[in-house]
Design a protein that fits this description.
This protein has four helices and four strands; from the N terminus they run E-H-H-E-E-H-E-H. It is α+β, with helices and mostly antiparallel strands. It has a single domain, classed as Lrp/AsnC effector binding domain/regulation of amino acid metabolism (RAM) domain (Alpha-Beta Plaits, 2-Layer Sandwich), CATH 3.30.70. Strands 2-3-1-4 form a four-stranded antiparallel beta sheet. A hairpin with a 6-residue loop joins strand 2 and strand 3 (about 50-55).
């Protein structure tokens, strides 16, 4: 099961329409579920990024499609990271020569 971490920065449009952000976040979670995944975490952060979302269960292709759709709405710009669990990392290390 793939895990993706999505770092988001609000655009000018997104900050102007901030009062509707909670509804957009709920809609995004439902869209991810419709694609077979789940948003397991969502955080509003202080610093370089305004939001961080953690998703599980989407293929890389489905995740990329979702991010393209999200970006096309114009409220956030994203940076997406594919994440590996500690167990997945341990398995990778075992395979090293």
């Amino acid at each position: 099961m793939a895990t993706h971490i999505v770092l988001m920065k609000l655009t000018e449009q997104g900050i102007k329409d901030i009062k509707n952000a909670p509804q957009r976040i709920d809609a995004a979670a439902k869209a991810i579920e419709a694609m077979g995944g789940k948003m397991t975490g969502f955080y509003v952060t202080m610093g370089e990024y305004d939001y961080i979302a953690i998703t599980e269960g989407l293929s890389d292709e489905a995740g990329a499609s979702f991010i393209l759709k999200l970006g096309s709405q114009g409220n956030v710009r994203t940076t997406t990271l594919k994440a590996f669990t500690k167990q997945e990392f341990a398995e990778m290390v075992k395979k090293l020569p």
